[in-house]
Design a protein that fits this description.
eight-stranded mixed sheet, 675 residues, alpha/beta, 24 helices
Length: 675
């Protein structure tokens, strides 16, 4: 959560032995409480021969004992006590038999006060300060030693250091960062540690001190992840607006005494896991429909589409106004009155309005019987095109999957009872759609955007929505794909796919976590990062991916009976991007400052490949030509050699004829004479 530590308090813990009214200490055989509380009272329980029975919570054990339902085996309200605070005893109407039963007289618990804004600006050098940080380290020898040396070299003292297993969301974030940085090598790396740990460290200095700044910069170079949880005064001291608020509370005349304070339930008692969220989707396009099919399984989903209307084609402006007016009239009229009214329009009004046009289009919302009547009435009209389209083209599709569809003029009713509002419109239309939403109806609701880039939608929502509207930026990095047999989106499993999100401004954390749990249950890879980090990490990759998918159409990727992994991956990219609208792709282009450079680089790479292909082709042609020339030259040399051999043979034959002896015998005679 995006909170900061603003103060610490060491609370003296006093455990109490709580029982039902009328139960005596001698009758107690079992004590129920949190395991930590039982361990802190171990000697006391042994001295009385009481058996400790661990439960999930100290106050929760008091609640269960008070109700008498849900106690462990052999435990009854008459033979069982609860170890909890005196406040829990007052809350659940239990008697306190003894206070301060803990074994250690210096039993303190450290509490941290959290706030949405830090108080580091209110700290001065005269106030002893403390800073809490959390960081993770790479899996290398001496990593922790190097991290601690960042502070030891600057004489910064520690007050606490501990390691805890890394949370799933942080681990997913680190994996995502690793994949972004190293690509396929990170996914194929088998030597990564099975368990990752976070180190929580408190050092005795303010984060704004120069030595602290140097140490934190040094640690940031050594670590995979670093977050400053907050700087605050030591030893329960309050400064800034926190101190002023506490002082005002002390001086208030309306402050209740401690005896007047009573609780009927604790916040942990509320169990709203079974309560369904009422989710509304603005923009029932391809992705909106894709989301609604999954959300409607466990929650109530309704939708509205600002773009569910037909293009005006070549309508006269007056006719468009007339058709819109008729839509509202139709909603209040009976079918028979509407049929008579339409008959009069077609027979008398339209021929006068579009007398000079060769064709015109009538876009109306009609019942099926009226559609048939209109088609029949217009069939005999020459040089006239009448197109009848249902009022809300996607209402039938929504109703088939159990999603309630609202027309645009009923926006107020659509927003009235929603818990979560998902804005699933193209990014180029996002600002226009948000600016037209009734902000009063969004108060107290969670507004979620699902654009492929988050910085622009985040700034638009912060600009248009007040502090009473919760804002969640997200990018589900998955979506529908086109099946091989038809052009309708086919479902895709969400298992292992990244779900990037940022809790920009959240007041109702339970509702936000419940919404995110929808994706967690589908086993998505939940990655929490800011919108700016998300865009810096994924904007270029997403744009290049969609650009590649749009370049690879079905003609370039024909179906084959046997395909390689690379070819199958290209087909998947083409199918995924073909299911998305061009407006989505244009939004990636418009709101990515590096998109034009990427297009230029893509053209340069294509030109480079073409030059390489042309050069290779020319080289092979030249090589073939040279080989052909060499072959011809070799043949000519062979011919010359054969001619020489033939001429030599002719000369030898002529000499033989002249002397009457073979040339060999002459050579033999000559050699004999010489010998």
């Amino acid at each position: 959560y995006d909170l900061s530590v603003v103060a610490e308090h060491e609370f003296r813990v006093h455990h109490c032995l709580l029982v039902k009214p009328g139960v005596k200490k001698s009758a107690i055989k079992y004590a129920v409480s949190h395991p930590q509380a039982l361990a802190q009272c171990d000697n006391y329980l042994r001295s009385l021969g009481i058996t400790p029975v661990p439960m999930y919570d100290t106050a929760g054990s008091a609640k269960i004992l008070s109700e008498g339902v849900g106690l462990p085996d052999k435990c009854t309200p008459e033979n069982t006590a609860a170890i909890a605070s005196d406040l829990a005893g007052k809350t659940y109407r239990l008697n306190c038999l003894e206070k301060g039963i803990e074994d250690d007289d210096v039993n303190f618990t450290r509490f941290l006060l959290l706030s949405r804004t830090g108080i580091v600006q209110h700290l001065n050098p005269k106030i002893p300060s403390k800073t809490s940080i959390v960081f993770t380290l790479p899996d290398s020898a001496g990593a922790l030693y190097k991290a601690l040396a960042c502070f030891a070299l600057r004489d910064i003292d520690f007050s606490k250091i501990e390691s805890r297993p890394t949370a799933a969301s942080l681990l997913n974030y680190l994996k995502f960062r690793s994949q972004q940085a190293h690509g396929r090598k990170a996914r194929q790396r088998s030597g990564s540690p099975r368990f990752r740990y976070c180190f929580y460290l408190d050092f005795l200095a303010s984060e704004v001190d120069e030595i602290s700044q140097n140490a934190l910069h040094h640690l940031n170079e050594q670590s995979d992840y670093l977050r400053i949880l907050g700087s605050y005064p030591q030893k329960s001291r309050l400064v800034g607006p926190i101190a002023a608020a506490v002082e005002e509370l002390k001086n208030s005349n309306n402050q209740l005494s401690s005896e007047e304070v009573s609780l009927s339930t604790l916040p942990s008692d509320e169990d709203d896991e079974k309560k369904k969220l009422n989710i509304g989707i603005i923009g029932y396009g391809v992705f909106g429909e894709f989301l609604s099919k999954q959300l409607v399984k466990k929650h109530k989903v309704s939708c509205i589409d600002p773009f569910d209307k037909v293009s005006s084609c070549d309508f006269p402006e007056f006719l468009l106004y007339f058709c819109n007016l008729f839509n509202y009239v139709y909603a209040c009229c009976m079918c028979m009155i509407q049929t008579l009214y339409m008959h009069a329009i077609i027979k008398f009004v339209l021929p006068r309005i579009v007398m000079t046009q060769c064709s015109f289009y009538i876009v109306m919302c009609l019942w099926s019987s009226t559609n048939a009547y209109l088609h029949g009435s217009s069939s005999s009209t020459t040089n006239t095109n009448i197109t009848i389209i249902t009022r809300h083209m996607k209402s039938k599709e929504a109703e088939e999957i159990g999603v309630e569809y609202y027309p645009m003029f009923d926006m107020m009713s659509f927003l009235s009872d929603l818990d979560v509002v998902i804005i699933a419109v193209p990014m180029i239309e996002f600002e226009d759609v948000v600016s037209k939403l009734p902000v009063d109806k969004l108060r107290g609701k969670l507004v979620v955007e699902v654009c492929p880039l988050n910085s622009h939608p985040k700034s638009v929502m912060l600009q248009n929505f007040g502090p009473d509207v919760d804002i969640l930026c997200s990018n589900p990095m998955f979506g529908p794909s086109l099946s091989d047999n038809n052009e309708s989106p086919s479902p895709v499993s969400w298992d292992g796919l990244p779900m990037i999100y940022e809790k920009v401004r959240i007041a109702d954390m339970r509702r936000c976590d419940k919404f995110l749990s929808i994706f967690e249950r589908e086993r998505c890879q939940m990655v929490e990062m800011t919108a700016e980090q998300h865009d810096a990490s994924t904007s270029d990759a997403e744009f290049v991916t969609h650009l590649t998918g749009r370049l690879l159409d079905r003609q370039l990727l024909p179906p084959t009976p046997v395909m390689s992994k690379e070819y199958a991956a290209l087909c998947d990219v083409a199918d995924m991007t073909a299911a998305d609208s061009f407006d989505l792709f244009y939004g990636m282009f418009k709101y990515n400052s590096r998109a034009k450079d990427l297009l230029k680089k893509m053209r340069e790479n294509i030109a480079k490949v073409e030059r390489q292909l042309a050069a290779k082709e020319a080289y092979l042609a030249a090589s073939a030509e040279m080989k052909n020339n060499d072959r011809k030259q070799l043949i000519e040399e062979c011919k010359i050699l054969l001619r020489e051999v033939a001429s030599s043979s002719n000369i030898a034959a002529k000499v033989e004829e002249k002397d009457g002896k073979p040339a060999e015998s002459k050579i033999t005679e000559t050699s004999q004479k010489e010998s």
